[in-house]
Amino acid sequence: MNKSEFRGFKQVFMFEFMTGVKKPAFVWFLIIICCIAFLSTPLMLIIGNSQSDDETSSDVPQKSVIETVYVYNETGLSIDHNNLKSSEKYSEVSFVTDNTGSYDDAVESLKSNSGSKDLVLKEEYDEKKGFEITIVSSGKSGIKDAAIKSFKEDYTEFSREETLKNLNVSSEDYDYMSKDINIAIMEEKKDGSFTADEGSISATDYTVLLGGLMILFLFINMSAGNVSTSIATEKSSRVIEYLLTGTRPMALLSGKIAARLVETVITAVASFSSYYLSQVVCLFFTVDRTAAASSSDNVVMVSSVWETITLPKLSIAIVYFLLGLALFSILGALAGASVSKLDELQDAYKLFTFIMIFSVYADMFLIIMMLSANASDAMRNFFTIFPFTGAFLTPALILTGKISTLTGIIALIVMIIAAGLMFVLAGAIYESMLLFQGKRLQIKDIIALMKKQVVE
Amino acid sequence: MSFEVKHLQKKFGDKQAVEDLSFELREPGVYALLGTNGAGKSTSIRMILGILAKDHGEVLLNGENFDTRKVNVGYLAEERGLYPKYPIMDQLLYFAALKGLSADVAMERIKYWGDRLKVTEYLFPERKKGKKFKPTLADQMSKGNQQKIQLMAALISEPEFLILDEPLSGLDPVNTDLFKSVIREEIDKKKYIIMSSHQMPVIEEFCEDITILNRGKAVVQGNLNEIKKSYGRVNLFVKCDEDISDTISTLGIKVVNDTPAGVQLKVGSEAEAKNLLKQLSDANKTIVRFELREPSLHEIFIESVGGSPEDNTQDNTKNKAEEK
Fold first, then answer.
1. Could you tell me if A226 lies within 8 Å of chain B, comparing CB atoms?
2. Predicted confidence (pLDDT) per residue in B264-295, tens digit
3. pLDDT band for position A197 (50/70/90)?
4. Helices A203-236 and A249-286 meet at what angle, rounded to 10?
């Protein structure tokens, strides 16, 4: 493959790029993805604020609508419900503890009093299960679900405090004892250093990896689809013959792929810029609000992921992503070149779609396994380094620090080799497939072309 | 400049699409490749252009390999095509860029050819006030106009070498004349042109040298006038007021066609024709027409490829299917 094989690359690239970005489909996609990216933070803030407002409203000493709570304490602990009445919220609520009837009778009585604002509460202790609290309300109770939920949360806290009092444990001691215990398993590496096991991931990592997987899948699928459609259009409209007098197949192939890569980079940069702008705007507007601290957790949640990013990691991830995109675009190009008519493209695309979907499912499986801490190092490394699965996941794994920079570099080298080989292979059969105008080429036909290499 | 095609061969599976094709262009002019459908004309042209790999043979320009990346070649393909959903102006600028033209030069030439081929209204559609400008897409044009755009694409780079594969097929008489006048202009500009066609009168009008291909093989090749001469004056057309069938059968002359306008005969030699004339004269027949002439290209073609054109078409359809 010499330089003259790429004669016309610039012209092909410019034409493909300009016609690509002028297409309404691309313009709308860009607008929609930027809108989603820009609106994501405000939406999370709104959701966060509404939850926060609920919590805030529960802190306001509004009087509870509950009139009477019939308490059946079967724990054996001494619980003073007047302590709960001391809060203004429950100051007018009657806690009846000296019930003459049984708990079942009280529940039955509640059934017959529709519209009552009474509750029946039973506290039990089981050695195996621990403390169990049952709160019963009437089916047509005058108490709203939110009030019952609020009472449940307040009573849980109250019950814990009363239990601690019974056991003579201070709340400070309880807080101390309740702290998380985090265990890191350190493994000795070949160089004698010890590193922590990176197998498991948090819920936040899970969200980020899955989100990243979906975004890369979207970009790769779109790019490869565009390349294959473009090639199939040139074949079915027979314009390819004219093009081949001014340029070479490799220039056509590489020009198309490069145009799609640039389109994807533009889309990614635009959407990330929208997201970043959205964060800046939201932080500016929420900085003085009391709800900001809690609601901006959503912002922080994703932002914290970026804290692990370094310039080398970012560079490796971007290059890897673009190579993955190129790899699947080459496969898409071969699918496009194997048909003579546009309406055969869907059929030719089946194998390609299967490879892509299978790779994405495999990646999803790995992410789930990592969440449940069942992913072995070998499994993670294989999925990271194998180009088809790595194309969708490795950039996110590199950025989130779930694989070491060294593994990232190895994956990148493998991807460069795979994309290069695929490009050379595609070049070997692309020209003969381009002028082929018969029925759709099957895999065996393509393999025969590869062996025969009828191209000069 | 000399252009040589030497021993070109191509096989598709078991079918020999082109077998040992050789010809030469030493001077500017039009060289014709003739043949029935599937005879190997387009395959030969694709191999000449280097867009299809040759099994064997070489294509030389001034003794060096002919490379479309180095030589300015214009090509009007038999299988014509444009991007159906893209503006034609964008496509022409793209094709011009692939030929190394700057946008300004390309635009100038597009204006010229648009005017010359009467497609300016499609290339520069009117901008209506208050309405969004909508460029003309290829699939919004008629087939004939699309063909004009493709001829523009072939000529936009002012090529020194022109390959026209069935340039007039599917055109109405007005556009056929328009295309012919453009081809004539290119001939006058001393261009090297290779043309393939089914239309024999067109070939006779433009070409001096020809190759007739049959199932991939060159069956007739050389200067058209010399080929005709080599066949001799054996075509005789006779019209008399009286019935002359007895005289013809007595002399054993082959009747090619017997119509109310006259009898078309094939004679073995000019002497045989003279003998018939003498017999008719002696018999006091009223001779209205007696014309002895060389065979037309159409007749040479039919004789060379054998059988009727319909038979060949069927046969070649089969070959094309095998090729696929």
1. no
2. 998 888 889 999 999 999 999 999 999 988 88
3. low
4. 140
Q: What is the ipTM of this complex?
A: 0.77
How many Å lie between the alpha carbon of B269 and the closest alpha carbon of chain A?
Answer: 48
Cβ <8 Å between A11 and B77: no
Condensed to tens digits (0 to 9), the pLDDT of residues B130-187 reads: 777 788 898 899 988 999 999 999 999 999 899 999 898 888 999 999 999 999 999 9
Exposed / middle / buried, residue A125 (Cβ in 10 Å: 0-12, 13-18, 19+): middle
Å from A11 to nearest chain B CA? 6
Spatial distance between the Cα atoms of A323 and A264, rounded to a whole number of angstroms: 12
Q: At what angle are helices A297-306 and A203-236 packed, to 10 degrees?
A: 70
- Chain A residues whose beta carbon lies within 8 Å of the beta carbon of residue B95: 242, 246
- Work out how many CB contacts closer than 8 A connect A with B: 72
Please give the structure tokens belonging to residue B201. Answer: 């009168």
Q: Which of B75, B98, B154 sits opposite A247 (nearest CB)?
A: B98
A166 touches chain B (CB under 8 A): no
A230 reaches B (C-beta below 8 A): no
A16: nearest CA partner in chain B = B94
Nearest CA in chain B to A230: B83
Domain positions in chain A: 3-40+199-450, 68-143
Subunit contact B69:A4, Cβ cutoff 8 A: yes
B65 contacts B40 by C-beta, under 8 angstroms: no
Residue B195 pLDDT > 60, yes or no? yes
For residues A223, A227, A232 and A237, what is the CA-based torsion angle, rounded to 10 degrees? 110
Burial of A60 (0-12, 13-18, 19+ CB in 10 A): exposed
As to burial, measured by CB atoms within 10 angstroms (0-12 exposed, 13-18 middle, 19+ buried), residue B229 is exposed
Which residues of A fall within a CB distance of 8 Å from B154? Answer: 242
